[in-house]
Amino acid sequence: MSARQASVGHAIVGCVKRYAALVLVSALAACDRLDELQYDPPITGEQWCADRPCVEVGSTVLNEPLGTVLVFTLAALWVGVGIYFLITGRGQRSRSWLGVALVLGGLGAAQAGVSFQAFSYELKCAGREFCSFTNGFEVGYSLTQAWSVSAMLIAVAIACALGRGRRAVIVYAVLNALVYCVVLFLGVMQPSKFLLSFELLMLFAVPGIIIVIVMALRRYRTTHDRAPRAILIAAVALILVNVAYFGYYALGITEALWDSGAGFYFSANDVLHVGMIAWLIYVAAALGPTLADRVSPE
Question: What is this structure's pTM?
Answer without folding.
Answer: 0.87
